[in-house]
Amino acid sequence: MTRTVAIDGPAGAGKSTLARLLAEHLGVERLDTGAMYRAVAWAVLRAGLDPAAGEAVASLCRGLRIEVADRVLVDGVDATEGIRGADVDATVSVVAANPAVRAELVGRQRAWVDARGGGVLEGRDIGTVVLPGADLKVYLTASPGERAQRRAGERRDGRSAEEIGAQLAARDRIDSSRRDSPLPTVEDAAADALVIDSTGLDAQAVLQEVLACL
Ligand code: CDP
């Protein structure tokens, strides 16, 4: 029986949509781990901290209450929209490259799974670090152009697809090249994950590919 599913991949590949559909199908909960890193970045900006200030950011993170469900609450404040803002988009990868922040959040993510006996988790390091023993690992990607188009459709904050594309590429570069828990390349992921290129596929088609592997 499939209890734990890891979904990893670059920004805008469709991980959240797949996680939602798959969790519904399996009757388990899902956790958007990216929302947790975004919550920390949001709190860092709010506190006026330098995102690259390793110890100060780590200490803020350790003391932060982060609740990720339909809404995202940070120390009880609703940050659901705030964590998707352009300022957080531009900062989150720097915060997520901080090893002490990662250690704290990975611990919380594993505790989340233990408390439920399973779930669908999406992020960058789920199959490699958080749940290396997951029942199913999916690596979801799509062409850079399609990822930027999709994200521009979601954001509606006046940024052009070009601006968003440049931003996604910058984030992917940091996420793939950081020392601690980098996002694997497609080639590396292929060793133990189901790799799906969702370019030109709708959400149902991606879901069907995954279900065929269960
Ligand atoms: O939704 P999108 O693909 O734009 O990104 P996200 O899942 O919301 O994650 C935002 C950022 O958090 C990523 O660019 C990574 O820097 C970081 N992240 C991470 O390092 N590890 C994870 N497991 C999830 C997200």
Can you characterise this structure?
- By secondary structure, the protein is an alpha/beta fold.
- It has ten helices and eight strands.
- The protein has a single domain, classed as Rossmann fold (3-Layer(aba) Sandwich).
- The strands form two sheets. A five-stranded parallel sheet has the order 2-6-1-7-8, sandwiched between helices. It has a three-stranded antiparallel sheet with strand order 3-4-5, covered by helices on one side.
- The longest helix has 18 residues, at 99-116.
- The protein starts with a strand and ends with a helix.
- The mean pLDDT is 95.
- The structure holds cytidine-5'-diphosphate.
- The site of cytidine-5'-diphosphate (CDP) has 15 residues, from helix 2, helix 4 and helix 8.
